[in-house]
Write a structure and sequence with these properties.
The complex is a heterodimer of chains A (121) and B (404). Chain A is α+β, with helices and mostly antiparallel strands and 121 residues long. Chain A has a single domain (5-117), classed as PRC-barrel domain (SH3 type barrels, Roll), CATH 2.30.30.240. Chain A has helices at 5-8, 47-52, 56-65, 105-113, and strands spanning 13-15, 21-24, 27-31, 39-45, 78-81, 85-88, 91-94. In chain A, the strands form 2 sheets. Chain A has a 4-stranded mixed β-sheet, with no helix packed on it. In chain A, strands 3-4-5 form a 3-stranded antiparallel β-sheet. In chain B, α2 (21-34) crosses α14. Chain B has helices at residues 2-16, 21-34, 39-63, 67-110, 114-131, 134-144, 150-157, 162-167, 178-192, 195-207, 215-243, 259-300, 314-332, 337-350, 352-363, 366-369, 376-403. Chain B is globular and about 55 Å long. Helix content of chain B is 78%, strand content 0%. Chain B has 404 residues and is mainly α. Chain B has one domain (2-403): Amino acid/polyamine transporter I. The chains are: A alpha+beta (121), B mainly alpha (404). Chains A and B meet through β2 and α4 of A and α4 and α13 of B.
């Protein structure tokens, strides 16, 4: 089966098992193997990967100065094995609970540190 | 029974939500400076926004994508970033003007100056966004916005020369002050076709879970709603052409604007104007803030939705909060809402193709729309008018700045 990666995977919306929007696919990682065809290994969902598509230097700065401080697992791009994804309607579905991954670290941080102090949130 | 109600509601909200500080001031300036001569620009702007709104509703109903969502997916993050930055800049200026419009209405009512109103107005707008649902914002404020129908009553009571007004439907070159004429013409266009309008509309269609069965309803709402809405802009222009133009008065301050209604309707007209300006600008404030937050959230794939508690979408809720706060600062530092509006509307015109052209590419993509892709007429009208508007704006803006 042919699968156009840039047209149908890169920048696509990702949803998790609970229908939570889990960000967009910011990068694709191929595994190059000796004597064998390259294999699609992971997709990356991370502002670091997204920023590196504009400037690698800025992405490195963002990773060490900001992203790393958002919690465990942050500071490096979050990778999802390709085998855990399936096409579903207009999105790609990942078979994990995104709330338990570093993808939602910023959402959780904002909720805990800012929103919890605002009435009606 | 449900769908006729939805059509009626859609039309009413389109009419009630059409006028805002941009369309009121630019139409008033057009009528004051050039009489009926610029009527064509209001009509052209209305046709363009009717096409764009129809397209964005059809796109959401058929593809189940909002426009920013598909734009990131189809063109990648690098191109999306360009659209995001330009639309954000222009829409923030417009938002500042709308917040200023609410504050200006309160200043007219109380005599207390705009910068003092800036903080309460910003806070009130934010609180409405924070506490209410999408339908309250869209339907509630637009229903109240029906007070803008008083412009139509005023225009009729001022006994316009209908034959002369009909001549204004055909574009003609001005006898004098050409730079100002074209500047006002593109500002009127910019006020009618602000991109936040049709971006917001596509998000609304997704929030209300439209499917292909809504394609015909959507067409009706866009055609009827935008025609009536555009009719109100025309009424403002006609009223200004009767009130200001014969006396050679240009509209340079928003304090002049209540005369549009107080001349034909007396003291009640003044208060109707205050209510119309305040409500219309408040509605636009809420819509622009949400439209920009949608743009960011959909582009980056976050959760978004106005019908959930803010804590369910922390990033989305804080994005619109920050946007309202930044726009509020523009009023707080004492920027004149009229000048801010003029700049914002002209820049909107200058940047029209940035939002419109990639949208047109999406509207012709069978992957998204199947058999519902655009026809030739829709493509030609939207592309032709937006590129022309950009060219005229790029020439007219510097000339207007030099001239003034």
């Amino acid at each position: 089966m042919r699968f156009p990666l840039v047209a149908e995977v890169l920048d696509e919306q990702l949803v998790d098992v609970h229908d939570v929007k889990a960000g967009r696919i910011d990068g694709i990682v191929l595994e190059v193997r000796d004597g064998k065809p390259a294999k699609l290994a992971y997709v990356e969902v991370s502002p670091i990967t997204m920023l590196s598509r504009f400037s690698r230097r800025f992405a490195r700065w963002y990773a060490t100065r900001i992203d790393r401080r958002l919690g465990p697992g942050r500071g490096v791009p979050f990778r999802i094995p390709w085998t855990r994804l399936a096409r579903e309607g207009t999105s790609l579905r990942v078979d994990l609970d995104v709330r338990s991954t570093p993808i939602m670290a910023l959402e959780d941080w904002l909720d805990e540190h800012i929103l919890s102090h605002i009435p009606g949130a | 029974m449900k769908k006729p109600f939805e059509v009626a509601l859609g039309v009413v909200t389109s009419v009630g939500g059409f006028l805002e500080i941009g369309s009121i001031t630019t139409a008033a300036q057009a009528g004051a400076s050039f009489g009926y001569q610029l009527i064509w620009s209001v009509v052209l702007g209305t046709i363009l926004i009717a096409f764009l709104v129809e397209m964005s509703g059809r796109f959401a109903a058929v593809s189940k994508h909002t426009i920013p969502d598909a734009m990131r997916e189809r063109f990648g993050v690098n191109f999306f970033a360009i659209v995001l930055v330009i639309m954000f800049g222009v829409s923030l200026l417009t938002l500042g003007a709308e917040l200023g419009g609410v504050a200006a209405a309160l200043e007219l009512a109380t005599g207390i100056s705009i910068p003092i109103w800036a903080i309460p107005v910003t806070f009130f707008s934010w609180a409405l966004l924070w506490k209410t649902t999408f339908s309250v914002i869209e339907n509630g404020v637009s229903m109240l916005g029906l007070v803008t129908v008083s412009f139509a009553v005023a225009a009729v009571k001022l006994h316009p020369d209908y034959a002369a007004a009909a001549h204004g439907l055909i574009p003609t070159l001005p006898k004098q002050d050409a730079a100002h004429y074209w500047f006002i013409a593109v500002s009127v266009l910019g006020a009618s076709v602000s991109p936040y309008l049709y971006y917001f509309y596509s998000s609304g269609a997704i929030e209300e879970k439209w499917d292909e069965s809504y394609v015909a309803i959507n067409r009706l709402i866009a055609a009827v709603g935008m025609s009536f809405g555009g009719g109100l802009s025309l009424a403002v222009l006609v009223a200004a052409a009767r009130v200001f133009h014969p006396a050679n008065i240009e509209v340079q301050k928003y304090q002049q604007l209540p005369q549009l209604l107080s001349t034909p309707l007396g003291h009640a007209g003044f208060w109707l104007f205050v209510a119309a300006l305040g409500i219309a600008c408040l509605g636009a404030t809420l819509e622009i803030s949400l439209a920009l937050a949608y743009l960011v959230a959909q582009g980056f794939g976050w959760n978004w939705g106005k019908d959930q508690r803010p804590s369910a979408d922390a990033r989305f809720s804080l994005t619109y909060s920050l946007i309202v706060a930044v726009a509020g600062l523009l009023s707080l530092v004492g920027l004149d809402p009229l000048q801010l509006t003029e700049i914002a509307m002209a820049l909107t015109s200058a940047s029209l193709p940035v939002g419109v052209l990639p949208f047109l590419i999406l509207m012709n993509d069978r992957e998204y729309l199947g058999e519902h892709t655009n026809g030739h007429i829709g493509n030609a009208v939207v592309m032709g008018v937006s590129v022309l508007a950009m060219i005229v704006a790029v020439v007219a803006i510097p000339l207007e700045i030099i001239g003034s």
